[in-house]
Amino acid sequence: MRILFLGDVVGRTGRDAVVKRLPGLREQLRIDMAVVNAENASHGFGLSPEMARAFFAAGADVITLGNHAWDRKEIIPYIAETPRLLRPMNFPPGTPGAGSVVVVLRGGHRVLVMTVMGRLFMDALDCPFRATAVELSKHRIGVNCAAVIIDVHAEATSEKMAFGHSFDGQASLIVGTHTHCPSADHQILPGGTAFQSEVGMCGDYDSVIGMQKEVAAARFWRKMPGERLSPAEGECTLCGTFVEVDDITGLAKRIEPLRVGGRLSQTMPAV
Amino acid sequence: MRILFLGDVVGRTGRDAVVKRLPGLREQLRIDMAVVNAENASHGFGLSPEMARAFFAAGADVITLGNHAWDRKEIIPYIAETPRLLRPMNFPPGTPGAGSVVVVLRGGHRVLVMTVMGRLFMDALDCPFRATAVELSKHRIGVNCAAVIIDVHAEATSEKMAFGHSFDGQASLIVGTHTHCPSADHQILPGGTAFQSEVGMCGDYDSVIGMQKEVAAARFWRKMPGERLSPAEGECTLCGTFVEVDDITGLAKRIEPLRVGGRLSQTMPAV
Amino acid sequence: MRILFLGDVVGRTGRDAVVKRLPGLREQLRIDMAVVNAENASHGFGLSPEMARAFFAAGADVITLGNHAWDRKEIIPYIAETPRLLRPMNFPPGTPGAGSVVVVLRGGHRVLVMTVMGRLFMDALDCPFRATAVELSKHRIGVNCAAVIIDVHAEATSEKMAFGHSFDGQASLIVGTHTHCPSADHQILPGGTAFQSEVGMCGDYDSVIGMQKEVAAARFWRKMPGERLSPAEGECTLCGTFVEVDDITGLAKRIEPLRVGGRLSQTMPAV
Amino acid sequence: MRILFLGDVVGRTGRDAVVKRLPGLREQLRIDMAVVNAENASHGFGLSPEMARAFFAAGADVITLGNHAWDRKEIIPYIAETPRLLRPMNFPPGTPGAGSVVVVLRGGHRVLVMTVMGRLFMDALDCPFRATAVELSKHRIGVNCAAVIIDVHAEATSEKMAFGHSFDGQASLIVGTHTHCPSADHQILPGGTAFQSEVGMCGDYDSVIGMQKEVAAARFWRKMPGERLSPAEGECTLCGTFVEVDDITGLAKRIEPLRVGGRLSQTMPAV
Ligand SMILES: [Fe+2]
Ligand SMILES: [Fe+2]
Ligand SMILES: [Fe+2]
Ligand SMILES: [Fe+2]
Ligand SMILES: [Fe+2]
Ligand SMILES: [Fe+2]
Ligand SMILES: [Fe+2]
Ligand SMILES: [Fe+2]
């Protein structure tokens, strides 16, 4: 099985690039399963139902969100009826939506996708490690599901690496989101799980994490109310992670980053 | 001019790799100027004078430190007499050592190296942006110095990107340290400054930011005193950034990452 | 029923004062139930079993701990066999000890004591609000227990006040610990629960939260390793909260602060 | 000289109480100098020029602000022309307004008032300790000014106590603001400076730090966008600190808290 994970979509330039290029990427890389983190799609803050529909239509099997999940409030009723749109699993009980979903692919393969949010330098939440352990106790990779994909939406690399090792061997891919800067530490961990601490954003990299650089940088210099942050509008670099999964074990055979368009160095997984 | 910057050296595996490979890398890549961040060289915490001497002997022109600067107290008298060993410039007035140095290379070129520490999710310090602006007001790249290298030791990618744009055109290289995960966002910013939000560590990547994974991961699961953290001892991946600088302007012509040895995908700048 | 709650005991001066004065206070104020937070009893960091025994012998019915619970490791086996010694209830499952206990007083009255730790500006923990709601669902004040006492060990006054209102009417007393500065906001909330956002420490107030002032203050001026913090040794001010509880409802009839000895303004509940 | 300091005014109930009662308090307590922290006067967020004028008219000699300084943007031009309206002194250079002012009282006495903001659990700012030392180097209590009043707007009691001791003997009064819960640790420090770690708010204490309790408490239970916070509207408790200053030395002879109206226990300085 071949998996493509695209990181935080930021603003119009990110949305347009994902919608335009995802169909071709699916074909070119013979992707079986695509996941897109879209928490910043709407002007940098949240996701509208209409945008979610566009991503699904373009080939996203599952969409994940993070700390910006509720920035667009229209998403609340929509997520309640859209099982393939996920918010962090370790949000409090009673939160609308879910943090995991089992998707059945065309060939009948079952794939578990889940997302949790880290706590270091982030919001006060229930333990993402324990939440993940509970969820994984219900699914066995290579037994009752063909692949497991976990989006760990977190700030600190220490928490992400600790997470990766904690569930090494129980997932096909554990990939970080949230910092918007792609990491070059992709590897297959000793237990067989593909890991990358940060997939990076789909947005303009002549920016401050996707937002216009002058206004965003001024916030670090001054202690005054400034202009509203808005997304940078230059050409998007699509940042993603590609994983090839063993059909028997569900573990990873290969992980490669993908960076297409825009300012960053370009790379495509070998086909 | 050709610059090599190596990220946070962690523990024995990192030290040994730097000492063993830096001389060859200098030769192979025809490096004029090498900088090494060594804040985690001593069992993950700090740097001893003896280790610093070994790095200088192996070809480091300048060594930088970060939040772990003082973990080994012997460094305090040593830094006072070692101008090429830097601690963050925005530490309070009166702190031993300095945060910047002008190195004169064999050919007579003057190179300014400086390091500052970020504040987002880090210690309470004076403004790293203003400290940098003050320092840069005394040096003009392409006029009275041939190159400017800035190590921005920070947690948040937003602060690092804001920092890069704030001084774009005034430095040859602005490179982040501290998170220990190499980023793949290296680029030449519009004003001519080479930028990479994180160079990554020189350490074992089968770990939690260089430390043994079982003990480090347990800290995220439990709220109890655990075993002491100690560095992972597997093979080191040397993580670095290579920059080629224009001899006239001091701005960057090329930036490429370097990853040698260990678990991460290997890459070497083209010679 | 009459309850006395004494705040964080800091160092020798705090220990000596509690051991010396608690018996007399119990008698003078006709206390039925005394609780002591002792997380800083041992040189400012943690509690030894021997010290715990001394507090129990002096009249503490229950001892609570906070973020410093495990600073003295000998407490770990001891807490496992000492139900009246509590650590925060919202520590992860599997943590030694418990966060609540039902004490049966001489007259047969059952009193529930519990402690939780806040999350704002503190460690990543499970939700203290939900943990409390679960625990309180098993006990009904005025029905199957005569009083409920909750120690909310937290930094932010917003979290403490939110906690107080969330459980107003379900507890006799909700009192904050951890900041070491007694608050003057004691009141009976509309639902009948006595509330004080911070009881204050039992320690020397010519200090920085109980620790010697020169060394502790220097940490705010400098970014260098300094001398070890150690407790200030001047005369202790015992800081406590006194509550009189209605025998039928278990709700509060009166709340008064107590400050005895040392530098702070002196106050004793009317008898 | 007699000083009255009133803590963070929250919303309409706080504004109305200050405007209505300050004139009488000045007279009754024979106040020479009144300072009011008003950062939450406008619906809990910021201060409008019109409200500032009302406080000045009611007898405030100086008004201080804190982290909410700029929540109402109309205050920016107004502060630039209003020397007696202060924002934290350790905001970055170039910030409108000032952080200190020397007020000349009717009898000719000069009083220095200043305010700084803490950094622990707060924004990244320049060092409040060093900023204060620089300012105090220009003024000598008992020599060229009759009194010095410092508002330390901070979260952590450790930072506030460290601040108090650092400048003990150089100020008449050092009083904390920001947490909105009055402390009962008022004392005259060994060097002669009156100190109280937190003056408390002027607002409704049936609330979460002055805001309506249901909405504010829900934020600790849930991870969802909720209703807007708005100030509680019950009866205000005016919380203040009264200090009597020695006419020769400028140091404190007496410090007493003041709590008038509303739910908290009532106390008035002896006349
Ligand atoms: Fe994001
Ligand atoms: Fe995020
Ligand atoms: Fe480091
Ligand atoms: Fe660091
Ligand atoms: Fe404590
Ligand atoms: Fe504590
Ligand atoms: Fe306030
Ligand atoms: Fe404030």
UniProtKB/TrEMBL annotation, chains A, B, C, D:
Where does the chain bind Fe cation 2? E39, N67, H153, H178
Catalytic residue list: H68 (proton donor)
Binding positions for Fe cation 1? D8, E39, N40, H180
Keywords attached to this entry:
Metal-binding
Name the residues that span the membrane: none
Q: Record keywords: 4Fe-4S included?
A: no
Q: One GO MF term, please?
A: 2',3'-cyclic-nucleotide 3'-phosphodiesterase activity
The name this protein carries in UniProt is: YmdB family metallophosphoesterase
Its source organism is Rhodovastum atsumiense
